[in-house]
Amino acid sequence: MAERVESETPFGADLGVIRRLANLIPGAKPTAVNGIRVAASIRPRKLVIVGGDDTPVTMPRTAFQVVYPDGTVMLDAGLDEATHRSFSTPDRPEPYFPEAFAQVERALERARMIVLTHFHADHAAGLTQSPHFGALAAKTIVSVETARCLVETPHRPHLTMSPSDVARMNIITYDRTLAVAPGLVLIKAHGHSADHQMVFIALADGREILHSVDVGWTLDNIRAVKGKAAPWVKEDVPAVIGQLHWLNAILRQEPNVRLLVTHDDALFASMVAEGVIGSELQ
What we know:
The protein has about 280 residues and is of the alpha/beta class. It is built from eleven helices and eleven strands. Strand 7 and strand 8 form a beta hairpin.
């Protein structure tokens, strides 16, 4: 079992309550989860996890789709190429996959609902920079904290939103957990950012997927209960450590729950190979 550190804020989410909420909203549960990699960043492992070395780690920028019998819900929106390029320099461009982002754009237009987990560009810019923002905003859920961040602390200057544009989205507030669709529960997990959320997905066939989003950048962060080491990442570290401990306990004690991690390329590939998630968006 991973050692605890002194500086930790215990994370109080209750998996039993989350499972109950997954059954709260009437209707058919989702039948599948799909994911896609729209871009990637290459970082030395010593920036990805405390105590890492110089081994390069491919960190995909992803978006996910929850598939229901009568429609889909998008979890995050990827990011456009211009926004992706703003994170690198012209002499060291990082991978971008325009065909994959075109899938995201089509999936956003077809979705019945869009959920932004937090305001960071690789999760939100595919929506906020879309030429179809108005139509997409009308079916998008954001927390009140995300709404505030999009206006007051944008991830990139060009992503600053006006209060009137943010108000076109559906702004929600909740305490710890919130069911937003059959089998789909949001979990407030502030720490990585002031608005960060995780997502629990209960599928119709009994499988469960817990999308930890950016609590850790890779599954190794969760296994070792070690945070990120990138100097530009400004987190509430005690809160993140508490969340990593919570996720670590689920990893060890809940064999029916598969953890999904936004930026873990090897995990993404293995979950696709196992058929846990699909690699194409509908």
